[in-house]
Amino acid sequence: MRSEAIVKFIKILPIIFGFSLLLLLIMVLFLLSGLNPITSCQLLFYYGFGTTTYLSEAFLRSIPILFISLGLMFPFMAGIWNIGAEGQFYVAAIVSAAIAIYSAWMPFPIPLILSIIGGCLGGAVYALIPAYLRVTRNVNEIFTSLMLNYIAIYSVSYLILGPLRNPTTNFAETPPIPGSAIIPRIFPNLRLNFLSILAFILIPITLIIINNTSFGLSLKFMGQNPIAAEFIAIDKKRIIITTMFISGFLTGLAAAHEVLGVVHAVRQGISSNYGYISIGIVYFGGMNPIGIFLISLLAAGIINGTRLVSFFTGIPIGLSDMLFGALPLLIFISNKAVEKILNSILIHRKRWME
Amino acid sequence: MNTNSIFSPDMSVSSLLFIEMRDITKIYPNGVYALVDVNFDLKPCEVHCLLGENGAGKSTLMKILAGVLKPTKGEILINGVPAEFDSPLDAQKYGIGMVHQLFNLIDDVSVIDNVLLLTPLSKREKLWLIKDKFALDFRKFAEEMGLPIDPFIKVRFLPAGLKQRVEILRLLYLGTKVLIFDEPTSMLTPLESKELFKFIRNVKSQSSIVWVTHRLNEVNEICDRITILRGGKVVKYYTEEDIRNGVELAELAYYMVGDAVVSYSDKIKGDALQNTFDKPILKIDNVVVKDDYNNIKVKGINLTLYKGEILGIAGVSGNGQKELVEAILGCRSLEKGSIIFNGIDITLKSISERLKMGLAYIPADRLERGVADGISIAENIYAYWVNTINRFNNSIGILNKKCLYDKVINLIKEYNIKTIDPSLPVRILSGGNLQKLLIARVLQNPCVKVVIAEELTAGLDIKTMQFIHRKIIESCKQGISFILISSELDELLKLSDRLAVIYDGKITKIYNNNVDNIDLMELSEYMMGIKY
């Protein structure tokens, strides 16, 4: 069993290395904007995790990322590249908001439940479009899911500027979500709500699914060798449809959490790029629910921290977007570097043993 | 041997070479000792045979000579002068070239393009090439060598024998003086092999040849000297004199394997009950299949497989075997015809449905079609079982990992798969152990009724081969049927209850009984389409 521990350690190594790179990049960016990198970094972590409120805010921001990343983990593991979480998020957000607004006359829990379910299904159905095209027509899901993002974003723009526009403020947003569809808070002074708990419950559930079910095993196998998967009776079509459904469904959950629990409306930019950030998070987390949880919390804290630091020091707020744009690159670099280092260590050890 | 001459590559190409490899040691980055202090030499105008099981280090030694690999220690002397190869191109400059087992040709372009790819060209020719001039020259050269070939034909359309001919001609055309043949007869029919032997005897007068093989019967045909490798060391060396006095094949086999070979030439089936096979399990009815390029590859095949029998399919590869297998498995659709399995028409069923019904597949390309090499040995086995057997899931779909793990441990013991820990990734397994894993995985599945196996023991050593043969016979007695598709005629003749010959997408002959006493010449005539 010792070898297993070593294998696990090797899997964690790129994450640690990649995170150090991320920190380094943050410091360089602070330096470039004329700040002291060390104190700014301290400040960043203070604003990210320093007090109960800041910590709860970090958790709050990590929840949609966690939902989406846990969902994306399934198709990614099977080698299906769902780049469309962003679009699925928008569709789910507008569906759940519309249901909440139009069913406001019903007593309290019914509109809430309806709009959560509606949002989830909206995201799932939107994710099924590329899956269906892939299965029946063998259209590459990367292109279809990516292109569908734009369709979703602009359709939602149309809706919040047109039929669903808030008549009182006339901003580009929907009317506020009525009280009957708002998810209650756990603590009155923190913004965490009861749906947030579900994200944490999902961590062990997904862990069991990927490690202890034939579905999870098949996913892993298919991701590693899609050709051989066919020859050991793995139903590839079923897996494509199921994983895309799960990922769309969980993205929908993230959207419902954001709309019904945090923002209480759909605005432009409601997704805060979560759909794209999560792609990097899944890889950074090593395709493992626990890793994804830790990384998404860290990412949420860093996003909050950089925003507040930018706000207080007057440097551009796009800093955090820049960081997370660089995330896939950092992961790639750290993976390659760790691989190289390990190889050279192994070779040296062999020589030494001789 | 003139050690005083100032060395120049041009000179060595024009004259014959004397090659010495001294104390060659090769350690792979993963710590495997492939070769330990191996000495090997090659005189002009001789055929030096390099014998050994798979994994003995033959290929490594020859790759070092051809410049593909660099030795960890040791040196290569050419006409007494140390030489160092950084790439195959360097070796080519010295006049050393290799005929690869699976042919190093580009399928989609013509023969002459393949030749020109390696020909050193002048600056003018690099800018503006008159291909016809080269082609005519090459054709003339080929005819002079006694191996005529059309230089404009696409390599894809050539049978294996002619592809090999292109490789040989290309090397000779480039002025190669040392030809290394890596398992040259593995892709050829007996007739083609005979032709190759004849050619080797002719070409010997102007070049030297290293003949790498694990087939003993070739040794007496052409070899002048023999070196036997085992476990990366030279275990036996025969001089010209020894060969002239005659060498017992059993002795060679003894040195190759290391312990007494258990009457390998005997039919392993022995006096196994000649079951009367009467229960058909798989019926292939007038099947027509197209390949990826829309050519009809299988042209109306009828075959019936009975319960508990081994049906061998002999044929030169590329005559529709691959398409036939894929059609039976269900990953290639039929143009015409039907397949009935166990009484049910499965023509329209998907591959995973068919596999769940009890078909199983042991692929020739084990890494591409058999396993996912990044995940663990145990998970590779689980992944097949849980998708074909329902028993391992409990009511809510959670796997019984303990039960699975115990089964895997037993399996690894029973099949003697060499690994420290089943949680290590599959890529650390050697070819033989990988094949054992694939076979174990299939035969341990209680639902399996028909196994389709391609190249069952290709690349395996004799011990593993015998072990696998024994397992196959055992499971036949339990009622599992096999379709064996192989280029090793020996194996087919040894194992099959019935033998079908495929040529150009048709079954040209079925030997229904007495597979042991088939006339090999007649068989190869069927395989080549001379007789049908």
Polypeptide structure, described:
The complex is a heterodimer of chains A (354) and B (532). Chain A has helices spanning 2-32, 37-49, 52-77, 85-102, 109-137, 141-161, 194-212, 214-224, 226-231, 236-263, 274-284, 289-313, 319-325, 327-353. Chain A has 354 residues and is mainly α. Chain A has a domain at 62-293. Chain A is globular. The model of chain A has no long low-confidence stretch (mean pLDDT 89). With 532 residues, chain B is α/β, with parallel strands linked by helices. Among the domains of chain B are: 19-104 and 178-257, 3-Layer(aba) Sandwich (Rossmann fold); 262-358 and 497-532, 3-Layer(aba) Sandwich (Rossmann fold). Chain A binds chain B through residues 1, 3-4, 7, 208, 212-215, 217-218, 220-221, 223-225, 227-235, 343, 346-347, 350, and chain B through 27, 29-31, 329, 331, 350-352, 355-356, 361, 363, 368-375, 379-380, 382-384, 386-388, 392-393, 397-399, 401, 420-421, 423-424.
Provide a short characterization of the protein structure.
The complex is a heterodimer of chains A (354) and B (532). Chain A has a domain at 62-293.
Keywords:
heterodimer, A: 354 residues, B: 532 residues, alpha/beta, Rossmann fold, six-stranded mixed sheet
Global geometry of chain B: globular
Instruction: Write the CATH fold name of the domain at 19-104 and 178-257 in chain B.
Output: Rossmann fold
> How do the SSEs of chain A run, as a string of H and E?
HHHHHHHHHHHHHH
Main β-sheet description of chain A = none
**Strand order, largest beta sheet of chain B:** 6-7-8-3-9-10
Shape of chain A: globular
Q: Name the CATH superfamily assignment of the domain at 19-104 and 178-257 in chain B.
A: P-loop containing nucleotide triphosphate hydrolases
